[in-house]
Amino acid sequence: MLNIKGIYKTYGSGEGRVNALENINMEIQPNEFAVIVGPSGCGKTTLLQIAAGLEKASRGSVSLRGEIITGPGPERGMVFQAYTLFPWLTVENNVAFGPRQRGLSEKIIKEKVDHYLNVTGLAKFRKLYPKALSGGMKQRVAIARALANDPEVLFMDEPFGALDAQTRVVMQELLLQVWERDQKTVLFITHDIDEAVFLADTIYVMTRQPGTIKKTIQVPLARPRDHSILLTQEFLDLKKEIVELIWEESKQAAIHINHA
Ligand code: ADP
Ligand code: MG
User: Residue 155 contacts by C-beta under 8 Å, 6 or more apart in sequence?
Assistant: First the structure.
């Protein structure tokens, strides 16, 4: 479905040169929930932006169903950590924005908007403006808005990173429900290991800079999942494995700083 092949990314030149990514390879299957986890600064956002066509790779290619991605497109939806709603549009008009841009009929637009407001629990809030919403509600609108474009792949860059712990849990469960219902391919980025294990079919653990894939882990936890699995031995074993992988990276980084 989504094929990331030999991606390298360098920012700047000379003294200021940063090798952000080195030889990233990923093959994401249709309807797969893929999660990239790694320490801050390891290149997660850079990789997602390249995969979404918003940033150019220095080397390598990304293809969707065999077609090379050269720029952003409606078949790829994005949800960012920062709330990116249009403040001058109501909830329903934020969700309707993409379908209107695509020139769909008002009848179809209304069906889509109704559907995604229902599945994200926003139906009652459709006439409100973003400034009247909590962070969790804003991110629900952002998810509904991305889904209303019928993307084949949904790219999510730490979408729940700014939410409090309780709201984050609710949003993770909601996202899995929507994903199970609508069968989307998702590439999700986080530095939160619990979040990665809870959501993923496949976890890609990244190294510190330059970012490479250190390990690919298949998550065998049964679906549908809810937060009761966070305390199961299976979950904790997987979490421990990833904590140790990332801890190795942080230690390396600390040694690096001490010697600098
Ligand atoms: P993450 O999302 O994992 O925290 P990023 O992809 O944001 O990491 O950044 C990876 C590295 O690339 C960092 O060292 C960052 O400073 C650098 N970087 C990111 N964007 C730019 C840019 N536009 N120009 C120069 N350096 C950048
Ligand atoms: Mg980032």
Answer: 48, 51, 52, 76, 77, 78, 79, 186, 187
Ordered by where they begin, the domains of the chain are: 2-75+151-259 (3.40.50.300)
Instruction: Flag whether the pTM goes above 0.85.
Output: yes
d(CA 22, CA 206): 11
Mean pLDDT lowest for which of 18-27, 145-154, 199-208, 210-219? 145-154
Closest ligand to residue 13's CA: 1
Q: Where are the beta strands (DSSP E) in 80-139?
A: none
C-beta of 54 in contact with ligand 1 (< 6 A): no
Beta carbons of 208 and 155 less than 8 angstroms apart = no
Position 45, amino acid:
T
Compute, in angstroms, the gap from residue 48 CA to the centroid of ligand 2.
9
Nearest atom (ligand 1) to Cα of 189: 2
Q: Whose CA is nearest to atom 17 of ligand 1?
A: 20
